[in-house]
Amino acid sequence: MSNQQAWGYTGIAEYFRAKIQTGKLLPGASLPTQRETAAKLNVAITTVNRAYQLLKAEGYTTASTGSGTIVARARPVITGADRLDRIAKGGPNYGHEETSSDHTAVITPCTEEWVAKNFGIALGDDVLVRRRVFRTDGKPVSLATSYFLPSVMEVVPEALHQGRMEKSVHILYDERIDGSVLRSEEAVSSRLATAEELRALEVEIEPKAVPVTVLRVMLHSENGILSVWEDVLTPGSWKTIPTGN
Fold first, then answer.
1. Range(s) of the domain holding residue 27
2. For every residue of 46-92, which 3-state class applies, written as one string?
């Protein structure tokens, strides 16, 4: 961390963000005080304060009485793929301290190219979209969106239910057609969050250019693709990807 370069608040935030992401600053570790950072970089304390506020809003840090700003505990994220695997093994739909909120279901013209491509439909064709926010310890960790063709309601009319379903659409579909619903491998990428996604995840950050991790998975039935899912993780939420032996 050199004081020879001109430091803006975004650069300061990126410096500490990289330290946290690479494990050089572990959960519970203290950041330098704002005065220490300001003095070291020869910048105004208001600039450092803005950087620290950004890190806090993104979920990377938290305030601790007597310790100042510390690295936040990593929020465990259970994605759609994790949930499918857990249910397949006879586990519960929701894990310990895991809840969901803001459930919506709507039939709307498809505006996502990746969704249209997977279903083999044109942009503007109708899709059924179910959306909800998953929470751990009451805090948002992911915005989950499931896309279906409207024809799924021929088998599962409850797919348009507004609110949390006791059984997910794919489980009801599997039970009623006596078939096998399989999932694809989970694909991981990143992009900038939309303003709507930031609102849903209760992230208040200026400016609004916020990178997020995105995970996608497809569900296949004997009749083709049943659903495509997307999880957008809250900034500061970490997803552990298992590796092979």
1. 9-71
2. HHHHHHHHHHHHCCCEEEECCCEEEECCCEECCCHHHHHHHHHCCCC
